[in-house]
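Revision sheet: structure tokens.
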Amino acid sequence: MKKLILIAIITTLSSCIPVKIAPKFKNQDYKIIQAKKFQKDMPRETSFIFKDPKEANEFYNYINKKFRLNHVDVGVNVPFQIKGQTLYLSYYEANREDQTFNLPLVVTDEVLEKKAGLKVFENNYTSRKGHWYIVLTIFDEDINNCLSDKHPLKDETTAYLKTLKEEYLTTQNYEELLFTKKS
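Predicted:
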């Protein structure tokens, strides 16, 4: 029994304790949920959310080039067509972090402070790793959310957003979008 307690104490003292964990979408590379549930400062709209591995402002540049917006209202009610109906795309960027508490560094600093009177790792008690997500909302001309379960274009809208996401993630040079058919 003493060995088990000793192993538990050593494991606890030598581990990093997760405080915040960024979401991971199981079995998919996107999720359709209410944006407010994903991040508190987002709107209460059903949204298409996916992880963005690219640098900052890449999605802005992609939308700007794809829809030929010339830096006017990029990301806010960008019109496009599905089955002859005009729909409007808006997007948000969201940052979610993994945060861990590094217990071994705290213990080391306490020992060093008692023996030498200094703290070496004081600024490293926690570590963070950021993850960026793109949150897309789509509305029709009557301001109905096209990603809601009751909307008649939900399946087509979801398929369009999957294609848009794949095109964004695989395109390196957004200028080549100018040579493709505008959707």
